[in-house]
Design goal:
It catalyses: thiamine + ATP = thiamine diphosphate + AMP + H(+). This is Thiamine pyrophosphokinase. Belongs to the thiamine pyrophosphokinase family. It is an enzyme of class 2 (transferase). The chain has about 280 residues and is an alpha/beta fold. The chain is about 25% helix and about 25% strand. It folds into 2 domains: about 160 residues, Thiamin pyrophosphokinase, catalytic domain (Rossmann fold, 3-Layer(aba) Sandwich); about 90 residues, Sandwich (Jelly Rolls). The strands form 2 sheets. It has a 10-stranded mixed sheet with strand order 5-4-3-2-6-7-8-14-10-12, with helices on both faces. A 4-stranded mixed sheet has the order 1-9-13-11. Helix 3 crosses helix 5. The longest helix is centred in the middle third of the chain and has 16 residues.
Length: about 280
Amino acid sequence: MTDVTLWDTHSLLSSPHNTARAPNSPPPPRNALIILNSPLPPQPLFRRLWDAASLRFCADGGANRLFDRFVKGKGRAADGWDDELDGDEGRWLPDLVLGDLDSLREDARRYYEGKGVRVEQDPDEYSTDLGKTVTRLSQLESSSPSQAPYQLVIIGGLSGRLDQTVHTLHALTLLAEKEGRERVWTVGRESAAVVLKKGKHHLKLDLSLFGKTCGILPLGTSSAHVTTTGLEWNLGPKDHMYPTSLSTAVSTSNHLVQEDVTVETDVAVIWTMEVRGGAE
């Protein structure tokens, strides 16, 4: 029987302290957030991602983004802010700010250090701030080998300059293909993405927060043979875009028609989907 990898967005959004689970169901995974220096997702989504995490790191200027939203109040009116749920500044303190600190502003640094948050500089020029924080996460996991690894949720990295977005997708691919992390998600302001390795995948998607637009991107390969169910325009030998490649046809601006989607692919591809409420 072929293994199927489950990608469940509900696992990103379920607090580890929530005891309202079905009988005999496994507990949600431990989530670790790494916040990049990139626009945060809309507050209703970010609130749930934050609450579902048991570890929260800021990669250098990612702390500026937290500071701007939760201390300075920048952009709150347009981001689904709720004073009752979000107004306590003390709720939004990360466990660590780590990087070369060339992007961290002095006002944000003073604030977080004054609140007791560890701010650490790593001057290594041969690793990115994202790489530094993932390395630190791996060290923490190695110190507790009896516990399952964290499900990694990267906040940001899919907006702004194209080369930086490609770097994020490159990092996702390395984490999945080279370092063997089972599930790594990237959630930005407008889009979310994962790397689907060769094999079969089952995606369970919360359509109140993600979709309806989605896509499958065959990056880093000459072509991919992908078969799907659950999309408005499915891929497959009897459907569309089979094989798919940048030089023939790519499934972009596709639509989710149900919460359950299956994807089978013969090489790694990027799955991407819209974040509701994030686009201008």
